[in-house]
From TrEMBL:
UniProt cross-references to InterPro entries, sorted A to Z: ARM-like, ARM-type_fold, PP2A_Regulatory_Subunit_A
Repeat in keyword set: yes
Keyword field contains Iron: no
Name under which the protein is recorded: PP4R1 phosphatase
GO cellular component, one term: cytoplasm
Gene: Ppp4r1_3
UniProt entry keywords in alphabetical sequence: Repeat
Entries under PANTHER family matching the protein: SERINE/THREONINE-PROTEIN PHOSPHATASE PP2A 65 KDA REGULATORY SUBUNIT, SERINE_THREONINE-PROTEIN PHOSPHATASE 4 REGULATORY SUBUNIT 1
Annotated region (Disordered), positions in chain: 11-30
N-terminal signal peptide: none
Amino acid sequence: NMDSTLHYIHNDSDLSTNSSFSPEEERKSKVQDVVPQALLDQYLSMTDPSRAQTVDTEIAKHCAYSLPGVARTLGRQNWHCLKDTYETLASDMQWKVRRTLAFSIHELAVILGDQLTAGDLVPVFNGFLKDLDEVRIGVLKHLHDFLKLLHLEKRREYLYQLQEFLVTDNSRNWRFRAELAEQLILLLELYSARDIYDYLRPIAFSLCEDKVSSVRWIAYKLVSEMVMKLYMASPSTFVVELMSELVEKFCRCRKWSGRQTFVFICQ
């Protein structure tokens, strides 16, 4: 039966694109020849709610944790075996399950390649961006790793959403803002001088005035890296405007803390 099923899969090129599977076809679409099929079937059944009640309440979390490893083992050509399970886990009611996926979505993107990432992972990524802070931190910590795998135009769409990371469920969650500053330093290499000036500069200036010193110190480094990036770019209009704004906003600030910020950035 296994041989005949594998033969069916390999000879039906339209199967992976057919969205109206019969139950039998649905079962066959999960068939592969990399690992024993019974082992994969057992893994896929972990998302069954009844398993959580009778076996382990955190079985879905374990399933999510192992998914990148399973995907690497099966290879991107067998992603169709895991796609439904991944989407089920991504919409799981437990935030710990979604958080686990959020922390590993960049690894899965490397395994699947840009085409499958754009089609299957980007929608999940967008959902995580609007999730609880416990889930959002997962995508934030690896924001650069994920965005660098996208095409330029798709990557630019996220410029409009970076500002939203300044808003958290708990304003005391300063580590969230510190992580944002760290990621923005890495993101400088992915965007043009105009994009940096128009979108990243306002966020960087806001972080320079954060209430928590740890966040401000990272922001000082971010602004200095931004000056260097814009200085190397052509034309030099943006770096001149940026430096003029630094002088006006911080160097000539009425408060000593603002003038101190200017000195730290120069340092």
